[in-house]
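Thread: Newbie trying to understand structure tokens

Hi all, I'm a second-year student working on a class project, and my supervisor (Dr. K.) asked me to get a predicted structure for one chain before our next meeting. I've only ever worked with sequences, so writing a 3D structure as a token string is new to me. If someone could post the tokens and maybe explain what I'm looking at, I'd be very grateful. Here's the chain:
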Amino acid sequence: MKISILGCGWLGFPLAKSLVEKGFSVNGSTTSENKLSILSTAGILSYLISVTENEIVGDFNAFLENSEILIIDIPPKLRGGFSNTSTALSMTFVSKIKNLIPFIEKSTVKKVIFVSSTSVYADSNSEITESTKPQPETESGKQLLESERLLFSNSNFKTTVVRFGGLIGVDRHPIYFLAGRKNIENPDALINFIHQKDCIGIIEAIISKGIYAEIFNAVTPFHPTRKDYYTQKAMELKLPLPEFDTSKPSVGKLILSEKIENFLGYQFKENQL
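---
Reply by user tm_fold:
Sure, no problem. This is what the structure looks like when written as tokens:
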């Protein structure tokens, strides 16, 4: 089976390598010419592709050729020339997804996995499941939700959406940014993180079990408060302790991943983060 991964970045590249090791043929895209040889060395057929709100630069037809599955892993980026135009911001990423769809429709791709985020849910101080109505409060959350709907509504292929929590890994952790900072808000809010290894494992489980036309919340079932977690993590790494603002109520949410465990049958590998 051939799989195309649009966006071989922090998550897409190790995912592509893991799929190659499991015997899949993988096409991978990058926006960096310097990275083409790195992908090729890992056994990934590399393509230089850039998706903008106006066009797709690169041979996208060749990138999709003979692929059954497309994994879309391009995060929304809000940097740009907009002054204070939330509508324009929200349409930037949505336009990119709209540009992809005609190419997918005429390709051999029948299944799409879309990497989304739990930012589609509001900070409602409540438990969140896949049946919770999304009410995004950020521009990126609004972009992602509209993009999910675009892909789901297309009958030419089946889409599964994976809404990941905060992404962490060996080289990526928010404590490095928060260490030593003062007046950090929401000390009693719960963390909703997931390790890179589990992101890869969940996507591979969806592929191996052929589960499509579904939505999954993907967050490690480990939810200490921000204050407890970041304080402990700073101590473990011998970093300056963060200081929290306790003068006002904390806002957040508790993302439940029971569908990942019960319906997908996935067991988390990194439980303590």
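A couple of things are worth pointing out once you decode it. The two ends are 33 Å apart (CA to CA). The chain is about 35% helix and 20% strand. Feel free to ask follow-ups in this thread.
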